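User: Can you fold this complex?
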Amino acid sequence: MDVQNAQKLLRIAILVLVAGAAVLSRLYSVVNFESIIHEFDPWFNFRATRYLSSHGFDSFLNWFDNRTWYPLGRVTGGTLYPGLMVTSNVVHTMLSKIGIPLDIRNVCVLFAPAFSGLTAYMAYLFGCELKDETAGLLAAIFLGMAPGYTSRSVAGSYDNEAIAITLLMTTFYFWIKALKLGSVSWAAACALSYFYMVSAWGGYVFITNIIPLHVFVLLLMGRFHSRVYVAYCTWYALGTLASMQIPFVGFLPIRSSEHMSALGVFGLLQLVAFADYVRAKVLERQFRLFVVSFVVIVVAIAFAALLGLTWLGVIAPWTGRFYSLWDTEYARIHIPIIASVSEHQPTAWPSFFNDLSFLIWLFPVGIYICIQELRDEHVFLVVYAVLGSYFAGVMVRLMLTLTPIVCVAGGLSISSLLDVYNQWNVPVSKAPAVETNAKVSKKAAKAKEPADAAPEPKEVQGFFASFKSANITSSISKVVVLVTFFGYLAMFVSHSNFVTQSSYSSPSVVLASNMPDGSQFLIDDFREAYYWLRMNTPEDAKVMSWWDYGYQIGGMADRTTLVDNNTWNNTHIATVGKAMACDEETAYPILRQHDVDYILVVFGGLLGFSGDDINKFLWMVRIAEGIWPEEVSEGRYFARGQYRVDSEATETMKNSLMYKMSYYRFPEVNNGADRVRGQRLSPSDAPTLNIVDEAFTSQNWLVRIYKVKDLDNLGRQVPAAAAFDRAH
Amino acid sequence: MRLSILGATLAVLSRVVTAAPLGERTLVVVDSTGDIAEVGESISESFKSRGHEVTVSQLKSAPPLHSFGERAFDNVLIVPGKTKGLGHNFGAKQILDFFNEGGNIVALTSGDFSPAALRDAAAQFGISLGPKGTVFVDHFGSGKIGVDESSFRDSILTFTGPVSVNNSGAGLLTGTSKYAFPFVRAPVTAYAYNRLLDDGEDSGQIAPFVAGSRGVLAAGSQGRNGARFAWIGSSDLATSSYGDEILQWAFQERGVLRIRDVKHELAETGESSLLYRINDKLKFCAQIEEWDSEKSEWAPRQGATDIQLEFKMLDPYYRLTLKEQSPGQYCTEFQAPDQYGMFTFLIDYQRLGKTFLHSANVVTLRPNANDEWARSWTITNSWVYLSGLTTIVFAFLIFVPMYLALPPITKPVGKAEK
Amino acid sequence: MDVFTSLVNAHKNAPPRMKLIDIFMVFLVLSGVVQFIFCLLVGNFPFNAFLGGFSATVGQFVLLAALRTQVNPENKEEFRKVSPERAFCDFVFGSLVLHFIVYHFIN
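Assistant: Here's the predicted assembly.
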């Protein structure tokens, strides 16, 4: 077997091992707990996938969900991104056709790890296009293991990002390929993969803006040539048309400001191409006059048209979600719902290191190398790096989009390092000095790095070539550097593994804690309560809770909810907030009007669970205040500027429905000591409930379910009736 | 007296009782220490003749209202006397529980007898009764209270005409319950005061319990479950024709309605489902029946012109009066609004004195499916664009073979780069 | 104006395949202009049909422009991997995709 084939075989083996490592490191939650869907959003995706697999694609596209957002309903078929559910369904169907009837739940749980292997492969291809196979393999290893990516793709995290990052890398790979070759078919493939991405994730806007920005930067650098024209125009025409086929996207690419840059660059390219065409045919002087007047006029007209249409309202301005990336204070003031999501908070410094390990300092090195080499595809990397860094700094959840570029840049830098230091006197014969360690341990497979000792010169020019020609003669320095970086790589793998295992593998549905003797104590209150709801309430019972739990109630308890995590209707959420925040007399008509049968609250006072509804209470108040400022006022819930829940709480606080439901009968337990707020309720502070009856409290008082009382038979006001019942 | 009661009980036991859907197990509880005890007996006689299974008992030996967890009686008449309490069987809570389970209650009081338990219970019904000793006084009538026809509720009570009333207890409606209503109001010139407080001096300083026609001599209330409660403040009234009719009302023989056979369907196809589409034509029908106590059967209620259907989601989108399509069947047709969501067909018919009718059915209105919008080829505007597309496709199909037929390009095309 | 005449001259001297491409492109521009004017006059209902028809012209135009550039022997250095035959196949493939998407869109 000659060297070429040996290298190819080695690469294949390495890629398979990388995929295996990526998959295995994401399986901790399945091993530690069970195969369950995590968190909140994945429950909705799971429910939608179940609906798709039982009702078929046509029904799914036209699905009007009458078990959420009661009584408004939700046109789910037209307001979700179907890519994830369709892919799962296809996988499920194909598996059952070849004789492996895997349950749909298991398909959904294991979906993300499976696709992470694919992402690693696409990263490899991407790195190959940028530099060479070494960079590709390193990028694959990094992307497969980096905690920034595993945080959103562990087993059970069945969210859009699971497939979106794979498609992101695929689209970018096709784009770079199309740009380098100037081929329509690669650009068409890029457009089709872009279409798939649009169907899968709302963050496709990132691609919609980064590719035009790349082209724009190339134009500014004076690097216009036909390949750019061919690749971009084909991608834009086919991709935009295809993206409008998704019902949720509809006419947005023509109507919203976020897509205008793509349209603008498209127009600009036509102008530049035309000017180029004309220049060849015309004398120099005439040309200059012509092009200046023509281009300037057209650009001015186009820009004026854009401003005019935006001012007229035909083109929607930047939506709140994306505008808040620019003006970070905007959401807090104007759209409290967006500001209240914890994933939308700015990123803290430690999380950069936590998610990226030593790649964070390799990242600038890789970008520097790109700037030095600066072929067209490296400009793309630079643009991506700048944009990605900015967005990752603004919002925690956008760390995910930064991770691929960091991994690729890291791969570039280490492969450059290896180019310099890993040359061992190979004049003619190509003896591969290959170090490969493939150890597969119990929990994870450790990654290894290949050393490509005799590269082919076909793709290496310019700056990269200078690495190859660097001649380091001292063997000791080579060994020292190589061993050091091997150590860094090993530390990267172990760090990623550790972070994935400890921080990102917990299903938020089941909480784990430790007993005083160190053994594990599982808190399964959520599932206990949802199962109680499922078994003990009528099928058409309506459950009101804060919107965080909507998807879980719909998925696990299978009951109709009033509001859920989709948060598409702010007024409806504010109505629920008002019912929770106001006293019983005000809340009861709202409950009757919405046919509410049960109310679910989460209370962490006994356990010390700080994500409970009393801690979120101020957000409920704020959101309700946004719609009814004269009835709900945030200041009334604070006693002398402090958030009190004991006897010093304000009257408004004590009379609010949420307070009463959380602390009903609480002084009987644990001496009334609220472990989260650190305050104590005495028995005289115990609230009385008039309009609801306690139906269920879970084992650790984490979830409490109340049944709404029917109208009084005698026609009395419900509080008066309750008072009479208590007195007799 | 005791003999007559014994005799009455024996008579009851020997009677054949006909079972009726609305319940005719009547309990008459008499406190014979008072002087209105004969009222209980005469009423029980009249109900026996109407087919009720009447049990008359003394207050002390009254049977429990529940047996084996169910109601033992359907109707209860309480005739109080001097005894202050009514015993543990007839406290306010027991009365309310009995009522909430569907039992009907009539309570008598008089100017002399007004036990606290009855007053507590009536207060929950929204009727505030004067304490023991409160009587109506009318100085402009001839020493007795005349009750005239303006006091009566139409179609529940049909007898009109004055009756003289002596020694009547007083009540007023407090407004805490919206289902309470008066049967007989006091005349404008009457007032009620507690004569036990009147020791002859300074009678002008005693504040009246109620004055004018705000005071009531008989009042009633109906629960949402259809059970009825009536209070009559004087034995004269109770034994008059008014009292007879009030008692018939209270014991579910007058003004009893029910709603059956509620259905909704598509107007064109008659297909009924829980999922309709926006802008569908829908048809709604319900059968309303009234209890005919003479024939002891349910008869269609004819001629009602005020039964309304609400088609609502949070707020009513439509409020339509049902029209009588056939005897007792009321229907209406309408087009579903252009709004999708979960809508309720709601009938909430509440008329004082008649059984409340309540029917709520929730259906889903879904938006148009992908292929239910107007198709492109049916819209004339889009023909232009469709023709544009087809011409492009045809041009493409012509272009390809022609291109392949022409010779390939070998020489450069000027200095062009387009 | 000299620009215009020199462009027309260039077209006249072009090889037959180029001429064919140019004719098709001009036809597409006309079709697009007609549709756009119609939309301005009559209003943009149904919007998806207008977008579909108009984008079909734009997309086809772009594909043709790409084909034209790729087939021009002068640009051989730029398109090293893409032979003229390959360019044509790519063009057909892209056009088929475009037609399919627009057909779905208009309905």
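Chain A touches chain C through 33 residues (CB under 8 Å). The two ends of chain A are 95 Å apart (CA to CA).
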